[in-house]
Design goal:
about 325 residues; mainly beta; Cyclophilin; 7-stranded mixed barrel; 23 strands; about 10% helix
């Protein structure tokens, strides 16, 4: 067994995969539910599981951002990289994938606006960010182990967007109580379990997976089973930002989609997970396509093949 290398933090790119089956979207249209109950996230760790209830109405942008990381699997194989008893445990920065011997950085999206309104009391989860930069949060989060109300007055406060429910703090406290090991190149000592003091392996770290249990959140790019089409939110740069629907007009021999002009609704701002249209390249990129709150396909790339009819042909996807 090879020890985990922690000398450097690496980013990994995800290679595009050519679509081998042209029945892609036909499968997506089967029985996709359109609504969910209140948002709850399951956090599975090698020390046990706990559940987070998210504050959808209190910090909507922060919740959307967090869920986007969950449903795109970027929090899977992530680790708790900071644990300070009586203060916080923190994650959302680093990951060690199954079979990997290196600690990598989670792929982060754009920064989000601070939405502080709820106090950082014990059991709440909040977004970490760069000191002195209020609107700098991306992927990192922390769970308060105590009433850290002093955080409420630091740089306009740290946004609380949920809380640990049930008996979940038993697991969180157990993580906080672990031995910690300082590693060159990392900002905080890592909490470890069953560490022999020599070689550090993946199973010595607090590794997490996250899943949506229930919720009202709708990802930006989804299959609409009621209308048998695809709804996306797209950033077109100088062409504008909008929500629109796409008809699936062919699945063989090529997957072809067509914009429904009557569905175009202008939006005011870009949010995490938006699709991107480049008029210069004539390409539409959909980073994730969801069915029932779960990601079914990633990195879908379409070429604009009929500008007059607003038709796009699928080039590649995962």
């Amino acid at each position: 067994m090879t020890a985990v290398s922690v000398a450097s933090v690496q980013n990994r790119s995800v290679p595009a995969r050519t679509v081998s089956s042209l029945v892609l979207f036909t499968c997506l249209l089967l029985n996709a539910p359109s609504t969910h109950a209140q948002t709850v996230v399951q956090v599975e760790t090698n020390l046990g599981e706990f559940f987070l209830q998210l504050f959808d109405d209190v910090a909507p942008e922060t919740v959307r951002n967090f869920i986007n990381y969950v449903i795109t699997d970027r929090y899977d194989d992530s680790i708790v990289h900071r644990a300070e008893q009586g203060f916080v445990i923190q994650g959302g920065q680093l990951k060690v994938e199954e079979g990997s011997t290196s600690i990598d950085a989670i792929r982060v999206g754009p920064t989000i606006q601070n939405e502080f309104s709820v106090s950082n009391t014990r059991g709440t989860i909040a977004m970490a960010r760069v000191g002195g930069q209020v609107n700098s949060a991306t992927s990192q989060w922390f769970i308060n182990l105590a009433d850290n109300t002093g955080l409420d007055t630091v740089d306009e406060g740290f946004t609380v967007f949920g809380k640990v429910i049930g008996t979940g703090m038993t697991v969180v406290d157990a993580i906080a109580a672990l031995q910690r090991v300082s590693i060159s190149g990392l900002p905080f000592p890592l909490p470890v379990t069953n560490f022999d003091g020599a070689n550090l392996f993946r199973e010595n770290l607090v590794v997490m997976d996250m899943n949506i249990v229930s919720g009202t959140f709708t990802p930006p790019n989804v299959v609409d089973s009621e209308n048998s089409d695809v709804s996306i939110k797209v950033n077109g740069g100088t062409d504008g930002i909008a929500q629109l629907s796409l008809d699936i007009i062919s699945t063989a021999p090529e997957v072809i989609i067509q914009v429904k002009p009557e569905t175009i609704v202008p939006l005011e701002k870009v949010e995490a997970g938006f699709s991107v249209f480049s008029s210069q390249l004539g390409q539409l990129f959909i980073p994730e396509l969801s069915v029932g709150g779960a990601i079914a396909y990633k990195n879908l790339l379409f070429n604009l093949t009929d500008a007059e009819q607003l038709q796009f042909t699928l080039i590649s996807a995962e």
